[in-house]
């Protein structure tokens, strides 16, 4: 029997009157066709293999990033409890359909297998634009009858005009200036679209993104009263909404964190952001230190030991407000390089590795270029987010071209009880490093350099070397010197600088003739994502924030605990969008408001095909392991 026929499944119906003890032979599986070609032909768009629904366990270190803390909404994964895949499975178990050129029919094939899991509001035919010709099964009709018919996206316009206008002033400072009264400042504070508060269990304010103690003291007291009431009842308050504003609370030991957002984000997304702020505090003080401080004196003012870290917390908070793909997807973005070029860089890192090195990173324009790590230790995306924010987001670590920083740092994902020591050196992407400026940590652990006040430039290159030995500064400096020398010698430095200057390519540069305006593709196995440039369709802060709001709505739809959808289609007044989740990937793509579902599906498949071809260019597979 043909292999495809062996895979067929028949549901025997007793109404047919068959009383034979021996069941009849299985009939051949129906052969669906697209544009006259069978779906199960040999090449073309992607579809999952039979084994893809149950990921295999990792037998060895296969990626530079650890998925352990990535799926912080792990309860919503429908494919497996862990959601962890081996690197080989990510593409080796995927088969292809027949391809005659780059036709739309091929591109629509892979979404076909997900039609039964779509929202009942959009059946398979409507999503694929008439490409599916089979009628609905009784099981599908029964499921449709049980699903709520109200469209959760019926009113989505990303941001209302008033919110869009306010976003332009969201990051303005609330300082008492000439002509401003306290009432004026209070109104400006209330107009902010997003607030973050951190307070102790006794109600002492620790951090607020907007406003000083005079502005926030009353509201901190109200928040503490509400939190304490529910904690005392044994039912901690997690979130509530009031007049299109969402309040989310997170209690971690002696600290309470509160997020207030008018940007339409879900509870889970805001909770993830609060967890990142909590990790930022741990990176400065470590968990045992915080517990010891509050065990001795519960009313301690934690702002003194955290002095100097407000800029880091502000950098994280502002990134969340602007919209961060990395935070939304809990993944990292890598600099796109040829496979051979990245291998050369990895080999160079291994060649010059210092004996006391734990992790080594090369970071360019906020994107990871290469990583060297021990075989038994992975890097956690949450820890890397903290490093990226420190270097490029908040701009708190600067020493100029060729300068140096030596920073004690706790990486909570790796070990939240102790410090590691991070050597950082920046390089201009246009000038060869010629000078060095040594920086030493202050008493608070914040590095002090002669150029620490300068903002971070997006085109700078950073070499980050991490060690558990606090006496390894000079050793890591020698490694930095050897690394730069070798990268210059084998032309890798020029390759990196060229890739930085090239920047993100537009969607049409990556996928010619596509109708997509933007997309986010996450490889769940590698815990990394790739995306095109926001230009030309999403220029400026407001346009990018609107796009990220749409992505957040799609993300919530497919990760909702009650939805469990594999494919979600959204139509708003400004765009049509599609979210597609499999055990291997998450894909979010956006097109213009008049693009049909069929064309959107075709565009989604072309993105998957492009990533398959470019996987070892857009993702770091394994990295340099010793």
From TrEMBL:
Regions of compositional bias (Basic and acidic residues) in chain numbering: 1-10
Sequence segments annotated as region (Disordered): 1-116, 437-456
Bilayer topology annotation: Peripheral membrane protein
The FUZ/MON1/HPS1 first Longin domain, residue ranges: 194-315
GO terms (BP aspect): autophagy; protein targeting to vacuole; vesicle-mediated transport
Occurrences of domain FUZ/MON1/HPS1 second Longin (ranges): 356-484
Keyword Transport among UniProt keywords: yes
Biased composition (Polar residues): 56-65, 72-83
A single Gene Ontology CC term: fungal-type vacuole membrane
Biased composition regions of type Low complexity, renumbered to the chain: 437-449
Cell compartments where the protein resides: Endosome, Multivesicular body membrane; Prevacuolar compartment membrane; Vacuole membrane
Domain FUZ/MON1/HPS1 third Longin: 516-615
InterPro entries: FUZ/MON1/HPS1_longin_1, FUZ/MON1/HPS1_longin_2, FUZ/MON1/HPS1_longin_3, Mon1
Main subcellular location of this protein, as a coarse class: membrane
Keywords from the named record: Autophagy, Endosome, Membrane, Protein transport, Transport, Vacuole
Family the entry assigns: Belongs to the MON1/SAND family.
Function summary: Required for multiple vacuole delivery pathways including the cytoplasm to vacuole transport (Cvt), autophagy, pexophagy and endocytosis. In complex with CCZ1, is required for multiple vacuole delivery pathways including the cytoplasm to vacuole transport (Cvt), autophagy, pexophagy and endocytosis. The MON1-CCZ1 complex acts at the fusion of vesicles with the vacuole, through its regulation of the SNARE complex during the coordinated priming and docking stages of fusion, and particularly at the stage of tethering/docking.
Record's protein name: Vacuolar fusion protein MON1
Native source organism of the sequence: Meristemomyces frigidus
